[in-house]
Design a protein that fits this description.
Distance between the termini: 53 Å
Keywords: ATP-binding, Coiled coil, Kinase, Membrane, Nucleotide-binding, Phosphoprotein, Signal, Transferase, Transmembrane, Transmembrane helix, Two-component regulatory system
Number of domains: 4
Pfam families: HATPase_c, HisKA_3
CATH architecture of the largest domain: Alpha Horseshoe
CATH topology of the largest domain: Serine Threonine Protein Phosphatase 5, Tetratricopeptide repeat
Shape: elongated
Number of strands: 5
Strand content: 5-15%
Strand order of the largest sheet: 1-2-3-5-4
Radius of gyration: 34 Å
Number of helices: 27
Protein name: histidine kinase
CATH superfamily of the largest domain: Tetratricopeptide repeat domain
EC number: 2.7.13.3
GO cellular component, one term: membrane
């Protein structure tokens, strides 16, 4: 059953992205589009062909996809309908790597397309609504996507009863229902899709994927014989096109069927064919899932050497192993496999790697406690040193007072001896200056010690805060998140065998709430510790942060200049938190429509400038405010031995910050 869930996740991932499905006769179709674009023909034909080519290459060659999209945009000038279509394909281009931008493009496309009362406009609006639901799925969950399809997409095209796009939307709705264990409802929508596609589009790619979706629905219910009927129909459609990228999905469907029927030996050559196609068309995650199924089958067949090689290849390729949970699983599997093979030393090596990765959270907790104890000890030592310096200061004050009294008495006694009076007066002035200078030096020493103490405490607090953020994030994501996901899967499996979807609607509503809770928990974990910072560095993390705050009425221009990738992680984290606080304040309080963020590095100095065109604030409000956010901001700037300047009026606010990246 777990393999069925994995297959469904991949197939859903594909179908949620594969809008404007490419015909099965793929190569002639793409060649014809290229010929239209390169020829000097009708402007509208060239533009629409460029749109389709951009969509085709968006998953395999993003630079080429962008090139065709920009070429099309140049031809949309003074053509409102083509411009409305451009916004749709702009959303397609951004769908996989920037869902916020994609969502804005789809909404703009819907607004502009609604001005045209044509059949094609209605279909594009329906797809744009569907894709908008896809962009919001991780935030809102599957119920939101389901509601968007039912209330927005399908009503736009239902009046065109026999259209391919309506069949496509029905089968997309079906696979979402399958994933949520609504098998009967999913089957009904698959039947609706088949009624349209088999009658009017018997050789279409949409019909091919509907057959695969129907097969997966039956496999998920352990009804292998029913699944095979649809798998055979899909095979007939794809068989004439051995060069099509869709072959990879057919072979994964066949792999799923053979595993469901426990025909493991037969599954191995099918997996090899799937690996060939998925590798050829850069379907990396799908290729790795083929390899993982291959490993599992080889292990069951006791072909341990081949199983081990397959698992090591998965680890080296990194598509699956980039996730720490997957990596731990692979380590554990390699350890168990080597034990069965009689390789105790190698088994121990993989077990140690597994344990090291698993124990990393505990190690971080121990380090945090050590830092707390060390900071407390250092603080006590410094307080003792300050007390000694204060005692020394009082002693010197007493000495100065005694000398002053002595000089005053001597001047009265020797009033007539002017020369001696002047002599002793000079000595008095000299001693006083020396004492004053010593006092100044003493005060400076005390101030320096206090500053170092404050800096040390700030450092310990900030480092402890970041470690705690990371610990909580990992606990939420790896621990509680994984447990809740497992509970959800177990409930789904149990309910499919014991409950009736029509009679037990309340249970399925609660199951949907559990799914939403898992998504929200993982969203909170990502906010606590930015994964893009840990995986890709400061510049990428700051760019993601800017994209997060972009709104319909707010544009953020991020300009990175010479940011080094080798900055220590604690420095990167503090710079990230500073920028995060600056952006949050600007978005929340300024009312600006444009924000410019510039981050640059010059040797040991890091410069941050943020400007907005908002309403500004009074000059003295920054000093008077007791905002926790501004206090944290000042602490982080001080920690990096930096300085901050704020300039604000009714035309906007500018904040300049200079930091030392080698601050202790």
């Amino acid at each position: 059953m777990n393999r069925l869930l994995i297959f469904l996740s991949i197939l859903i991932s594909f179908t949620l992205q594969a809008q404007q499905i490419i015909p099965l006769n793929e190569k002639p179709y793409i060649d014809s589009l290229k010929n239209v674009v390169s020829a000097k023909g009708n402007t509208q034909s060239i533009t629409e062909s460029a749109f389709l080519l951009s969509n085709y290459f968006r998953n395999t060659d993003s630079s080429l996809s962008k090139k065709y999209l920009e070429q099309a945009k140049k031809l949309t000038k003074n053509k409102p309908y083509l411009l409305a279509k451009y916004y749709y394909f702009e959303g397609q281009y951004n769908l996989d790597h920037d869902k916020e931008k994609a969502a804005l493009s789809y909404q703009r496309s819907i607004k502009e397309l609604s001005k045209f009362k044509t059949e094609e406009s209605a279909f594009l609006q329906a797809l744009a609504w569907y894709n908008y639901g896809v962009t919001q799925k991780n935030k809102e969950g599957y119920p939101f996507l389901l509601k968007t399809i039912l209330e927005k997409s399908i009503p736009l095209v239902e009046k065109y009863e026999n259209n391919k796009s309506l069949g496509f939307l029905y089968t997309q709705l079906a696979i979402i229902l399958t994933y949520n264990a609504e098998f009967e409802k999913a089957g009904n929508y698959n039947k609706k899709a088949l009624a349209i596609l088999e009658k009017s589009y018997p050789y279409s790619a949409e019909l091919f994927y509907t057959y695969l979706n129907s097969a997966s629905n039956f496999c998920y219910q352990a009804k292998g014989d029913e699944a095979k009927k649809f798998l055979d129909k899909a095979e007939k459609l794809i068989q004439p096109y051995p060069e099509s990228s869709a072959n990879a999905f057919y072979y994964y469907g066949k792999t799923l069927y053979l595993i469901t029927k426990q025909r493991n030996e037969e599954a191995l050559p099918v997996i090899q064919k799937g690996i060939f196609y998925s590798t050829k068309f850069s379907q990396n995650l799908l290729a790795q899932m083929f390899y993982f199924n291959k490993y599992d089958i080889l292990k069951k067949l006791k072909r341990y050497d081949e199983a081990k090689k397959t698992l090591e290849d998965i680890l080296a390729e990194q598509s699956l192993a980039s996730d720490l949970n997957n990596k731990k699983t692979i380590y554990k599997q390699l350890s168990l496999l080597n034990q069965e093979m009689g390789n105790p030393k190698e088994a121990l090596l993989w077990e140690q790697k597994y344990s090291k990765l698993n124990d990393s959270l505990n190690t971080e907790s121990v380090k945090l406690e050590i830092n707390k104890i060390e900071t407390k000890f250092n603080t006590a030592q410094k307080e003792k040193k300050i007390a000694n310096l204060n005692a020394e200061k009082k002693q010197r004050e007493l000495e100065v007072n005694k000398k002053n009294s002595y000089l005053m008495g001597l001047s009265l006694a020797l009033l007539l001896l002017i020369i001696f009076f002047i002599f002793f007066f000079i000595i008095y002035r000299k001693n006083k200056k020396i004492s004053e200078q010593k006092e100044i030096n003493l005060q400076q020493k005390i101030t320096d010690i206090k500053q170092k103490e404050e800096l040390s405490l700030t450092k310990a607090i900030l480092e402890g805060e970041e470690r705690e953020r990371e610990r909580i994030a990992r606990d939420l994501h790896d621990g509680l998140g994984g447990m809740l996901a497992g509970v959800k899967i177990n409930f789904s499996t149990w309910s499919s065998n014991h409950l009736n979807p029509e009679k037990d609607k309340e249970f399925y509503r609660i199951l949907s709430q559990l799914d939403n809770s898992v998504g929200e928990l993982r969203h909170v974990a990502r906010n606590l510790m930015p994964e893009s910072l840990l995986n890709f560095g400061l510049e990428t993390a700051l760019n993601d942060l800017c994209d997060f705050y972009i709104r319909k009425d707010l544009d953020i221009d991020f300009q990175p200049i010479n940011i080094e990738k080798k900055l220590p992680l604690n420095i990167q984290l503090n710079i990230y938190r500073i920028v995060q606080e600056l952006l949050a304040n600007a978005v929340k309080h300024s009312g600006a429509s444009n924000i410019l963020l510039q981050c640059s590095q010059s040797e040991d100095n890091f410069f941050i400038t943020i400007e907005d065109n908002g309403k500004g604030f009074a000059k003295n409000s920054a000093e008077k405010t007791k905002s926790l956010g501004l206090r944290n901001l000042k602490n982080r700037v001080d920690y990096l031995k930096g300085k901050m300047e704020i300039s604000s009026d009714n035309e906007g606010t500018t904040i300049n910050i200079e930091l030392n990246t080698h601050a202790d």
